[in-house]
Amino acid sequence: xxxxxxxxxxxxYKYGMAIDLDKCTGCGACxxxxxxxxxxxxxxxxxxxxxxxxxxxxxxxxxNGRPFPDSEISYIPRPCQHCEGxxxxxxxxxxxxxxxxxTDYSHETGIVSQIYTRCFGCRYxxxxxxxxxxxxxxxxxxxxxxxxxxxxxxxxxxxxxVVEKCSFCYHRLQRARNKAYVAGRRELxxxxxxxxxxxxxxxxxxxxxxxxxxxxxxxxxxxxxYAFRLLExxxxxxxxxxxxxxxxxxxxGKVFLGNEGRG
Amino acid sequence: xxxxxxxxxxxxxxxxKGVKRCSFQCFLVWIGILHIPLMVGVVATLMCWGLALNVTxxxxxxxxxxxxxADLGIIAxxxxxxxxxxxxxxxxxxxxxxxxxxxVVVGVICYAAAQGILGVDIGQPLRGWFIxxxxxxxxxxxxxxxxxxxxxxxxxxxxLPLILENRQINKFGFPRGFAHHLHEAMPTIAAIGVFLxxxxxxxxxxxxxxxxGRPFAFREGFLVWPWTFFLFILSAIACGPCFTxxxxxITEFCxxxxxxxxxxxxxxxxxxxxxxxxxxxLKTIDTLYWVKVAGDVGAPFGSFYANQxxxxxxxxxxxxxxxxxxxxxxxSKKTRQNEPLLILACLLNCSGIFMNRxxxxxQTLVVPVMSFDKFVSYHPNWVEYxxxxxxxxxxxxxxSITYRYLPIFPQEKELNPL
Lengths: 263, 418
Prior knowledge:
CATH topology of the largest domain in chain B: Formate dehydrogenase/DMSO reductase fold
Helix content of chain A: 10-25%
Strand order of the largest sheet of chain A: 8-1-10-9
Distance between the termini of chain A: 40 Å
Distance between the termini of chain B: 30 Å
Number of helices of chain B: 16
Low-confidence stretches of chain B: none
Radius of gyration of chain B: 22 Å
Structural class of chain B: mainly alpha
CATH architecture of the largest domain in chain B: Up-down Bundle
Number of helices of chain A: 7
Order of helices and strands of chain A: EHEEHEEHEEHHEHEEH
Number of strands of chain B: 2
Helix content of chain B: over 70%
Strand order of the largest sheet of chain B: 1-2
Order of helices and strands of chain B: HHHHHHHHEEHHHHHHHH
Radius of gyration of chain A: 18 Å
CATH class of chain A: Alpha Beta
CATH class of the largest domain in chain B: Mainly Alpha
CATH architecture of chain A: 2-Layer Sandwich
Number of domains of chain B: 2
Structural class of chain A: alpha+beta
Oligomer: heterodimer
Shape of chain B: globular
Low-confidence stretches of chain A: 258-263
Shape of chain A: globular
């Protein structure tokens, strides 16, 4: 492989995901793992209100809209798509609009970060994201009593009034990098950095890795004839690939607006 | 009682010479009445700051709501200040000197309101300064923040000579001289204001226009500016003077006297009408081009208006009822000089701009982008309404005090001899 390098920062990675929708059962383990791993708050008052509840990973249920016996359903787990953007003028949709540089696209890792302590809550990034990936802390963060004892010490708690989103478990990348550094290595193996949702999926539907490293599984999966990305036509250039052998699922994911692919 | 008499005496010494104002008691009652809805707005604002934004009906699907739409609308309505200044000091339409002061007063209120509403809208108001400190030069919102703040300062400088011309302050040599120098520098100050206003009016158009993830709002454009950048400037110029006329008429109604001559109002109305026609032509071209471009990337025109209450009536109302009708009224001298029709045209024009800003912000978020996304509608709750309307009451108080104590209408004495 011809190694890509970023100016002055060593080898570059493009971390991404491939989610096999034929394997996904919609169990929601990825959502639970994500919430536990990233200290996502939840309140009794809005547990059932999907418009104010904070999900970094959300599983959508779609159907082909046909009556029995032709009825089919599929589940679409949706983490942050970590878009690369269109071109120089149209970078990652949310990054290019943030007025306070509170979110950034890393050309070293391909990960879109969020700096909670810099975000002042204008929510322009949320308006820019067509995937509803970004969520706002409408409340003060709150957990059921005693749950703070199981917080992940590597992930900071977000205060109210700021936007948050999936980070591809960036703290795990930092931890893996530290371990590799101690072991005298600069390169990470595929299994050293995996997201919580990837590890939690009981069906093995989620594959995570470096999209430009031929040794990683996602490298091959993204080139599958069944692979597609959400809203490809918009040119957001996301790094989350989906696989489905069902035509209607691929269409539902690729197109936007209208009723063509609606489940 | 002694205090009241003293204040009453002080009040009469502050009122400009040669004009009549209502009694001090009457003025206090009027200001007191305005404080009732104002306090409701203050409570709503404190709730947002104290209890977090979950007290509103905003949610993760609607990060922008009434506040942002109102912000964009108010800034457009306040464009009367810079455009009247431009016409008076740069184009040299001398008649407009009779209304330019009042246009500045209206501008100060509008821009203060926009910043105040934004202070409630953002989740972390104490970090508001991050927009300047950690500025992202690629963001349209950064451009908006810088230009609005700078222009607000320009408006304050333009308002300053009015304060210095107060009967009591003007007795002293320094304030009198300073006001005189400020008046002499006004063409330069107005030119700076025009430059800044062009940019922030445009940048506000750029806010929805650059959202390429939202095909409803996204527009191609010229260099880094989407077409909405230019349309927002033009629409603001078209409606700003109408808003100035509208507020002048309301002030005349409350004061029960004529404050500005008909020919001055007529000039503003005529220019506003012509600008509105130009805007409507360009907006129609933009809409047709947008229909084609959006269709090419898989977003059929009908899908944008598939969910009620955001049906096709929205487009017809915005461009037809609130665009073409006021344009026709403002273009014809006969209809323009008929006062009820003129007020109707101004009302329709200002409502049109507000509707346009609502469409470009809220409807942009209403239209589902992913095919499996559910349509969700949004309507503001009382907290959002009250904290927005707070600025209307504050504005009314500001105009009342300014009108009572400062010489903002140079033709008042001539039109209403004592």
